[in-house]
Design goal:
The complex is a heterodimer. Chain A has helices at 24-49, 64-71, 87-92, 97-104, 137-152, 170-181, 211-215, 228-243, 274-283, 286-296, 302-325, and strands spanning 79-81, 158-163, 186-192, 195-196, 199-200, 219-224, 249-254. Chain A has a five-stranded parallel sheet, sandwiched between helices. Chain A has one domain (24-325): 3-Layer(aba) Sandwich (Rossmann fold), CATH 3.40.50. Chain A has eleven helices and seven strands. Chain A is globular and about 50 Å long. Chain B has two domains: 30-210, Thiamin diphosphate (ThDP)-binding fold, Pyr/PP domains (Rossmann fold, 3-Layer(aba) Sandwich); 222-348, 3-Layer(aba) Sandwich (Rossmann fold). By secondary structure, chain B is an alpha/beta fold. In chain B, strands 3-2-4-5-7-6-12 form a seven-stranded mixed sheet, with helices on both faces. In chain B, strands 9-11-10-13-14 form a five-stranded mixed sheet, sandwiched between helices. Helices cover 33% and strands 20% of the residues of chain B. The chains are: A alpha/beta, B alpha/beta. The interface between A and B is large, with 43 and 40 residues.
Amino acid sequence: MAANKEASLSTSGLPGQAESPVDMEEWLHMYRQMFRIRSFEEQVNQLYTKAIMPGLAHLYIGEEAIAVGVCEALNKTDYITSTHRGHGHCLAKGASPDRMFAELLGKDAGYCRGKGGSMHIADQEGGNLGANAIVGAGAGIATGAAFSAKMRKSDQVAVSFFGEGALGQGLLYEVMNMASLWKLPILYVCENNLYNEYTPYKQTTAGEISARPAAFGIRVEEVDGQDVRTVHYTARRLIEYARAGHGPAFLLCNTYRYHGHHVGDINRTYYRSKEEELHWSTERDPLKMLATWLTEQGAADDSIINQIEKEAHAEIQAAVEFGIQAPYPDPKEVDEHVYA
Amino acid sequence: MSTHKTSAPATARVSRANGEPVHNKAEREITMAQAVREALAEEMRRDPRVFIMGEDVAEAGTPFKVLLGLVDEFGTDRVIDTPISEPGFCAIGVGAAMTGMRPVIDIMFGDFLTLTMDQIANQAAKIRYMSGGKFKVPIVFRTTLGATRRSAAQHSQSLHAWPSHVPGLKVALPSTPYDAKGLLKTAIRDDNPVVYFEDKMNFQTKGLVPEGEILIPFGVADIKRSGTDITLVATSSMVYVALGAADKLKEIGISAEVIDPRTLFPLDKQTLIDSARKTSRAIIIDEGYERYGVTGELASVIADGAFYYLDAPVKRMGAMDVPIPFSPALEDLTVPTAETVFQAAKTLCGRS
């Protein structure tokens, strides 16, 4: 594969703008990462419909470019916090799909020994401080991790992923205020998928989203969340900015959730049209967009894309099998890990 | 006769009957506020990961002046004034604790715990369990309790039952300067979230406290006075109320044993049970609301563990189940006093 470089995108002229082009190999890697997430989520959906998985899950399909574009700009030692819609962030930050499936199925081999499940999956070694079932709560924890990184002079950055639903939570504004006052190394990534659960965000969100962090003096950028290249370049710039000690940044990503709020949300026409869903999945799909661009650049063709997809699919198949076969936790574990 | 709950002597000359090892270190008489400050200073000198965060904690030293002077020694990097954002700075504390720090978060009035319950009960308390033991959250939430300060309904509550209800949290509530120092140092070294309550009315209460290291293990009750006829289990400043009642009871020939659990979780059930088995009667005195509260939990421990030894039902005395009123004429009626405990004990002992 040619290691040709893409010309760097224009920058905003603010600190932290240094930009080295991204190798085509890296874009192919990001394609693989996005496809792994999609394939993982499709398996989750099947586990639900086949009644193999206990409980529910919230699928990330359609939003893959954000988790991948941002996490590819992070170091392993950097922190993230995630949401109820968190499988994509977890995978993108480096978690292994077999142990993730084990967790989703409540198995002993899961990242949290089956105690967390889909909504609390965490990967300490990979820097994932956890998904959170309280909307907006991850922003608080990530700000604390950034605070700690600054106190420890560790050079780490924290990223908080949240949906636009978290814009309704006061906690977010409290911690953005402190992050700005204290110049904490944190990037707030808002994934605006247009719906707070079953309610269009325009019904719940007054004014301009970007004006909110801007009011705290936080650097804001708004991007097409379906375009992994734009997400990645912008995230790199903002993460560098935060790491350099300039303070927090806010990345607003416009995106779309192809599936329902959770796997059981099948009939959605009362809150959005099938035409709208079709438009996003055909015209605005992050995988298609990157594959098309790579092909246009001569960096990939159908056989290369197919090969990546085949390998990723096989990995996910093996992972789900691992999860299904894994044993449940020993009953004696029920009251372990309450206290350290 | 004052009905004020703090009618107990200002100096807490409380014995440590079952208590801690005798220290060779010099004991001085200092206030509860000084004891708290000393514990924080010692722990911050010992461990650079410890820091204090909250509203007006630095130069102001809190409205109660408990932290006065700490910022001079440790600077504003470790004694950190925050905006008035209790959920926000508690959340930052949780994230910092998960990533290697040991925060002591100052929540000025215990009533403000209501603002922080997500951070304490959903986040700090559950993160270790939800992660299957991967993360630990070594954080102390230092806050206050206690009525009779004429602060009305939103600055006077004693909400220690709330965190005590939630698995994953530990709860400490010292009554004496000695216990305040020893329990706070233990709390800071604990790898779990601890909610630590001080009674605002006790900050100027004096007591003997050794210089330097004292660590009081959690889950060890202290017998503040030995007795044979009735057990008075009391928490925080209710210990003074119980001791005041014990003085009165002694005058009429009733010997009361006063026990301070010191931590609600872990709870030293055995000391409570042993005492009730010995005396055959027990009253639980606590300043939280009586209904569904600490008194109910502790009474059930004794009822379970000492049932065949009891000569009377276990009695509970908590705060009256009303929002705390402002008027002194009303407020003083809402909390147990030495007199009301004395009367209840007398009745329980068949001496009406």
